[in-house]
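name: query_chain
kind: protein
chains: 1
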Amino acid sequence: MPEYKAHRRAGIFLLAASIPLLLWQAVTANQLAISAPTFLAAHSMMEIFAIIVAALIFFTGHGVQETVRSIRSMVLGSAFLAVALFDILHFLSYLGMPDLITPNSPHKSVLFWLCGRFAAGVGLLAYVLLPEASVARFPLRRHAWIGVLFVMGALSYGLLASPHSVPAMYVTGQGQTTLKITLEWLVFGFYLAIAALLYLRRQRITNCDIESLMLALLLLAAGELFFIVYVDVTSTANLLGHLYKVFAYYFLYRAIYAEAVSRPFRQMRHMLSHDDLTGLPNRAAFNDRLNLAVSRARQDAPCAVLLLDLDHFQNVNDTLGHEQGDLLLVAVAQRIRANLPKAAFMARFSGDEFVILLEHAPLERATQVGQDLLRTMSCEFDIGNDHLGIGASIGIVTYPTDGESASMLMRYADLALHRAKSSGRNALVVFSRDLSEEIQRRVLLEARLKHALGHNELALHYQPKIEILSGRLMGWEALLRWQSPELGAVSPDEFIPIAEQCGLILPIGDWVLREACRQMRTWQEMGLAAGSMAVNLSTRQFRQKNLAEDISAALSDTGLAPGDLELELTESSIMDHLASAAAVLAELEQLGIRIAVDDFGTGYSSLSYLKAFSIHCLKIDRSFIHDIPGDDNDTAIVRAIITLAGSLGLTVVAEGVETEAQLAYLRANHCDQVQGFLFSRPLPPDDCVSLMRAGLRRAAA
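structure:
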């Protein structure tokens, strides 16, 4: 970070500057005299700053809750409680301050100065050597600081009451004594030794700004050299020593107090911006980074976004459990990160979605990165005893080519990803303008579809099912149509998937069921031989727990007999949740409703559910009918389905019959019923009545 680097540079500059300053002040003649009042004022301000920092370090060690307090922080805090009090006494013992118990003197002030320096050294040595163990393991933890205060108070009182019981440290007119200079050298060596230990143990010390602590120790050592060379108390050498002590305490404040105070906020910020499972930045952090990248991107230096989603990840959770799924996500995140450029920014976007930001990357570079990721994902993952293979799909967008804002880019990336999945998965799709038009169309359709049901824009058309051998009308299939005043006729292939994805399929499906039952009952009351009514059920409808109750209510409200209703289900809706499907089909069987499997042959084509469940009809998908009798593969498939249905006693219906040749082949192979344009397109209700009445007239003739 720029601020952190600036502080480090400032500390290194101060250390470097101490060398010429020391060489300058080492010559006694260069030590300038400062007036006593001026020196006292400067000294007082610097000591007050040092006392405040020492007190803050004490509160850091003793102010946090016991569950997170460490023994080394507590020892350091206790030591700096002593340092703060010794510095107060040093400050108050200076000449010019009111006498404290005994007359103030440089000797008396130096005594408390040295006590404070050794106390600081002992505390810092303990901080470097002691482990990061919880203080809760030590029973006397609550009263340690009281013991320190008691010992320090006794020592301080002895020095205050009888300062001359200690050999002289400073003699007025002569300067520092040999003892005092020797002790200063010891303090200097003490600080250097602690700095060396800090360097050796830097990997073991946590929750501390190591570089700031190292600078503090070296600046303290440099300051001691000024205290060795000064002759007069009120000289520039002594002032520089105190000034270096202030600088050292500033870095000590940054290393210990500021670090301890800011750490919880950094941890909280990290928790808010990072994913707990993978440790990657989360969606919010990525959005912030993308907004920043967009703001500084240029036409000649674009940025790209890759949205990656794992294919069929839910199968891992369902078969192996969520714990294995979580381990797989961690392994996937690590592999993706290892195969990205160092400058790439990666985040976990949602459950099994990861997003990558490439700054200063044109589309060609982003595409190459995406292809590399698909290749690396093709290798299996070793998760415990399991060897898991999982693919991925990727959508790519670039700025400023594809969008003008971060939110637009992510919307388009999601659309490109959706296209990659719908095109077969394990694929990479680059966003293009046709996808943009598609999403705009989709948003418009979803908005209008929400009002279509309430504004009577939806209608049902009905396509007849004809028995091949007799030509009789056997029933109708209800097919949904949407005529929008604004959009015109909208194809079911376009709006039904949107209805399923946004949840509107449930109210629409309920309306279709009731309207089809009502229409069939109306035809019956008109005396028409309408046969049965087939209604398609979506997968979401089929998974509703109260489906049988809703259908029973619809039959009761319209007066239609259960045997006159046939529900068409796809194979996937049955096979995806076999246990729940079995229960629902059993309830529908008890109601007496017929069940048909729609689009048979395009899904699982499993024989097991045909035997296990109460199925009455198989409908051959139109894709197999289109090319018969010319295509050998299709004819073989159609013949096999008819034979299978016949052996199981099921009615078989061929969809999409459009030619006489198709009808002849189906008749020759004993298909039961057909529907398609050869006989009739889906018709509105009035045309259906005309068709049925025409059939009745032919029968009477």
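note: Residues 88 and 132 are 30 Å apart (CA to CA).
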